[in-house]
Model the fold of this input.
Amino acid sequence: MKRFTAAWLILVVLCTLLVGCSGPYTDADAVEIITPLLQQDAELNRYIWGDGFSTREDPGEDANVTDNCKYYRVNEDAPYHSVDEFKAAISAVYSSQLTEEIYQYAFENNNESMARFCDFKQNGKVADLQIDVTANHPPYSLSAVFYPETAVVERSTATIIEAKVEYSIGKDGERQTTTIRVLKQDEVWKLDTHTWAGEVA
Done:
């Protein structure tokens, strides 16, 4: 009986140590992890869904016209100048599943939808990023303001944090809450929730 009790106590101590190292996470942990992801998310949203990219006013021969879309090259001061560069920025912030959903909208070209972005090529080499400027991809209104310091953990494991976070539609809007989910993939925390955030306060 004593051996069983001692073994049980050791098991409890080990489990406590393991849980302490890997989770659950506190509200303070959630704020620290979620804040930079929401900031990066708000910035990327402007370019993925919004009107962050400005295009060259006179694309001339640079314009790539398909049956459904008309692509203009982005301005020289754009933060991304190729599909691969843009994809790398997206995959660094979002979970693998969310990344694929964004790719389907932004880059995949099929019968259901045309890609919003594609590469402009000269002499077989990528020369710049292009964006469709037709009504097929109207810019989203990104008016949501998020307040990550309000994060309250609802559930957490070693690789998942789900937290309630306050947001408003415009800074003067009424505060509401939504659940933000982040996943640890390849030892890096990634956002797993579409927010449509336009700003992080």
Summary: The chain has a mean pLDDT of 86. The chain has two domains: 23-45+141-200, 53-132. The CA atoms of residues 73 and 152 lie 43 Å apart.
